[in-house]
Write a structure and sequence with these properties.
The chain is of the alpha+beta class and 482 residues long. The protein is built from 11 helices and 25 strands. Helix 1 crosses helix 3 (115-129) and helix 5 packs across helix 7 (313-325).
């Protein structure tokens, strides 16, 4: 069987090749954005480039579609820059080194491929230049900085978006479409420990062996959070008569990842035997609770030398009480979509710099009110315990709609191919939530070819699916006459 070729005579392949020659990691999209603007000018299309390099290109309706409602196509221009340990690739200047593997997948040697979401950008450019296609007026939106928090899309205003039906080309699976995505917000919690001279023995509690995972895709499994478990162990020790003064806490590095390891340095005047006895009781209980989700859980306490200061009683208690009492993890499931997490939050970062402790938790919900409720609880608890509270990076959710004409059109196209539309809902965030917030009631489907390994050097794009999916996309557009 002949290996599939990357045939750049096909315009969607040509444009993927072109953008792969241009470095376009997040925050470095100006060159590819300028290329899209020049493309629009060369073809006589109206276009607009904003201050963060988002570009909107408008194409008039094809003959017979002048009275049809406009259709938005959307993709993000940035990619995640990741390379193998032995790669010397420079993401600031080097083109991607594309090749086709023996299974007919397009890949990049030693790096990410950028199919997420280069395929969507390539599709839009191919569609814009092809006057043989049937479609309503098109509004093609090329966004930036999606991979670092939907930054580009969130800079857009309601007046920038003019259609009420949209195909987000940041999907995948060829015959799959999304139904929902979570909105969210980062909550930053800060506390300055008031330090005083330490007369007691010092210890370090280490928690580890947890499996962790993405706080969107894995949170429903109710895995152990190392930061939360470490504080629980000390809280239970306090209940058993062990006095505790915090020196520092550390655990987790990303707000969207469930922490697998954590450390708390603390002091205590209690007998070490009592401290170790309390630890054993807590670890035994947690082992039973995490038997199926995190059987590798472990914790130990060992002595630390040279600790001259610890937090005073008030701020030490405030820190431990806040983490112990704050909501965390899976909160609510969807009643409309089986198996979908509706609302959650994840304490992903705990770090101490000098006497300053910073905590960061990511809240998620498909319902904006679900995020509001979590924010309200975290804020009220902060007020009670004297912790500084702030919110950043808020983005809206895309809630499930039972009726979707765009979903029906997608299903109709697949039915002609003897294929069935598969639907999926995710607890992660994507730009669909932004569009839903800008245009309440907008009808959205997600779409894209089969690809895998995104954000890793194993990323690959099924070239046969890349071809088929382009044809499917064109057929969906042709059905958008009504």
């Amino acid at each position: 069987m002949a290996v599939m070729e990357f045939d750049t005579s096909k315009r969607w392949c040509y444009w993927f090749r072109r953008i792969s020659d241009i470095p376009r990691g997040s925050r470095n999209e100006k060159a590819v954005s300028d290329m899209v603007v020049q493309f629009a000018k060369d073809h006589g299309f109206a276009c607009h480039q904003d201050d963060v390099w988002n570009v909107t290109v408008d194409k008039p309706a094809s003959p017979g579609y002048e009275d049809a409602a406009p259709l938005i196509l959307q993709a993000h221009m940035d990619m995640v820059n990741a390379r193998a340990n032995d790669s010397s690739h420079d993401f600031e200047k080097d083109p991607l080194d594309l090749y086709v593997d023996e299974d007919g997948n397009l890949r990049a040697r030693g790096t990410t491929l950028g199919a997420d979401d280069g395929v969507g950008v390539a599709y839009m450019l191919a569609i814009l230049e092809d006057d043989s296609l049937a479609h309503p007026a098109l509004e093609c939106i090329f966004t930036t900085m999606e991979e670092i928090g939907l930054v580009g899309a969130q800079q857009m205003k309601p007046s920038d978006v003019h259609g009420d039906r949209l195909i987000c080309l940041d999907g995948g699976g060829e015959t799959k479409t999304g139904l929902s995505s979570a909105g969210g917000a980062d909550v930053n919690l800060d506390l300055d420990l008031v330090l005083e001279k330490n007369p007691d023995a010092a210890y370090e509690l280490k928690v580890g062996g947890l499996s962790g995972g993405h706080s969107g895709g894995e949170i429903h499994k109710e895995k152990g959070n190392a930061d939360v478990l470490a504080v629980r162990i000390l809280q239970e020790a306090r209940e058993r008569g062990v006095d505790v003064r915090v020196v520092s806490i550390s655990g987790g590095s990303k707000d969207n990842a469930i922490p697998t390891d954590a450390s708390i340095v603390f002091t205590s005047s209690a007998d070490e035997a009592l401290i170790q006895k309390s630890l054993v009781l807590s670890v035994d209980a947690i082992h039973k609770e995490l038997e199926f989700s995190d059987p590798g859980f472990k914790a130990n306490i060992g002595p630390v030398e040279g600790v001259r200061e610890h937090a005073d009683e008030k701020t030490s208690n405030a820190l431990l009480d806040y983490i112990y009492l704050m909501p965390n993890g899976f909160q609510h499931r969807s009643m409309a979509i089986e198996g979908l997490t509706l609302t959650s939050l994840n304490l992903g970062i705990a770090k101490t710099t000098g006497n300053h402790v910073h905590l960061q938790t990511l809240t998620r919900s498909a319902l904006d009110t679900g995020v509001d409720d979590l924010l309200g609880k975290l804020k009220k608890l902060a007020e009670i315990l004297g912790v500084n509270y702030s919110v950043s990076g808020r983005y809206p959710g895309w809630n499930f709609k039972k009726e979707s004409p765009m979903r029906d059109k997608f299903a109709a196209v697949l039915a002609k191919r003897n294929e069935k539309l598969e639907v999926e809902a995710a607890h992660g965030g994507n730009e669909c939530g932004v569009w839903s917030g800008l245009r309440p009631g907008i009808d959205i489907i997600t779409f894209g070819p089969i690809a895998s390994g995104c954000h890793t050097v194993q990323e690959k794009l099924d070239l046969a699916s890349f071809d088929r999916s382009y044809a499917i996309l064109c057929e969906i557009m042709a059905l958008c006459k009504d």
